[in-house]
Write a structure and sequence with these properties.
The structure is a single chain. The chain is of the alpha+beta class and 270 residues long. The strands form 2 sheets. Strands 2, 3, 4, 5, 6, 7, 8, 9 and 10 form a 9-stranded antiparallel β-sheet that branches. Strand 9 and strand 10 form a beta hairpin. Helix 4 packs across helix 5. The N and C termini lie far apart (38 Å).
Length: 270
């Protein structure tokens, strides 16, 4: 059961109503700045499913985050409650290690119809404040993202914050799919070793000062000028709470190999 008032409170949306493009853009930004991309559910052995009940409990009730499929799936359910028409689009991320696209359904994005026009919405990117983008034309946005059209593909690029070089993020087509079509790839990524979904702790959340991110024990807080710091057993819960708003209720996720190696030399390590 989705309680929309609790969901809106979770993301800190202060508007009185959500009805048009301006309201949608404000809601999307509030979500991106409040709910992180994170895969800690894998390391906490928590339920993982494209289920409104499962994801509402974790993301809203427990004030946690999720992966792209989970965040966009639950957000689509909220938009449906608010009267928007949402469709699920199949996206493929660019894999720079292999210089190739990841398999179909490796990323989920949304198409939202407003007054006869369709807009891209993605609250599951974690790496940028990406506003709703019109799907019928190419466009660039001030947050360092742009959308290009190449044949049947829409391609999202991101600007590197230091070099200002454009990097490909993902591509997608406009064919709508059912959430069930994403389930095989979702399950594969959440259960198979060999990717950051299962091999590394990963948390990321965009904000006005940039992107805060955690990869195993490497933590960057975009809100502070001090640069990167190391996550330790002693500061784990404080940093997750302060930087990402996550409360694990004192639980410690199963250690990834990277965390285990880094903490083995720390006094009092787990």
């Amino acid at each position: 059961m989705l309680d929309r008032e609790s969901y809106l409170q979770r993301v800190g949306y202060a508007g009185n109503a959500v009805s048009g493009l301006v309201d949608l853009a404000a809601l999307v930004q509030a979500h991106q700045m409040s709910v992180p991309w994170e895969n800690l559910a894998v390391f906490l052995d928590e339920p993982q499913a494209l289920s409104i009940d499962v994801l509402f409990e974790r993301i809203v009730a427990q004030r946690r985050g999720g992966t792209c499929w989970e965040l966009n799936f639950l957000f689509a359910a909220l938009l449906d409650e608010l009267g928007f028409q949402a469709s699920f689009l199949c996206a493929q991320s660019w894999d720079p290690r292999n210089s190739d696209w990841t398999p179909p359904f490796d990323h989920m994005v949304l198409s939202i119809s407003i007054s006869g026009h369709d807009y891209l919405v993605d609250v599951g990117l974690g790496k940028a404040l990406l506003p709703p983008l019109p799907l019928h034309r190419e466009c660039a946005v001030s947050e360092g993202c742009r959308m290009r059209i190449e044949g049947r593909w829409r391609i999202i690029d991101q600007m590197h914050p230091r070099t200002t070089e454009w990097k490909v993020a993902y591509r997608f087509e406009l064919t709508a799919f059912s959430p069930d079509d994403f389930v095989p790839q979702y399950r594969l990524r959440h259960t198979t070793s060999g990717s950051h979904f299962t091999d590394n702790w990963f948390v990321a959340m965009a904000g006005r000062s940039g992107v805060s991110r955690l990869i195993d024990t490497y933590l960057v807080d975009a809100g502070r000028a001090s640069g990167a710091e190391k996550l330790t057993p002693a500061n784990l819960h404080d940093r997750l709470s302060r930087v990402f708003g996550l409360d694990l209720k004192g639980r410690v996720p199963r250690l990834s190999e990277g965390v285990r190696a880094a903490w083995s030399a720390v006094d009092g390590g787990l």
